[in-house]
Amino acid sequence: MTKPINITIGPDLQCPTCGATELANPDAPVADWLWQIRPNKVYHYGNWWSQCLICSGNNPDKGWFAS
After folding, report:
1. Domain assignment present for 58
2. Strand, helix or coil at 55?
3. Which residues are CB-neighbours of 43 under 8 A, at least 6 positions away?
4. Quick one: which of 44, 43, 47, 49 has its CA closest to 65?
5. Tally of domains within the chain
6. E-assigned strands of 1-67?
7. How far apart are CA 20 and CA 44, in angstroms?
């Protein structure tokens, strides 16, 4: 038996470098969402960090900003 997935949407994020929003297509059905900012955050030394997938250019060390 599978459990339903609950998705909690917080305030929309915007990359301070390139201006990308969290979703490229927020009006699409959930299964078709295209993420521009990684849909999870990382907590490190008192800050929550998000990663812009546009700015990262597939480099895991780039595109991070405090959110």
Report:
1. yes
2. helix
3. 49
4. 49
5. 1
6. 42-44, 47-51, 64-66
7. 23
pTM of structure: 0.76
Closest C-alpha among 29, 30, 24, 25 to residue 7: 30
Residue 39 belongs to domain spanning: 15-25+33-67
- Tell whether 67 is covered by a domain: yes
Q: Give domain status of residue 39, yes or no.
A: yes
Do the domain assignments include residue 46?
yes
Please state, in angstroms and rounded to a whole number, the distance separating the CA atoms of residues 11 and 31.
20
Query: Listing from the earlier edge strand, what are the strands of the sheet with 64-66?
Result: 42-44, 47-51, 64-66
Residue type, 26: P
Per-residue pLDDT of the chain (67 residues; tens, 9 = 90+): 788 877 666 677 899 999 999 999 989 998 999 999 988 888 898 998 999 999 999 899 999 999 8
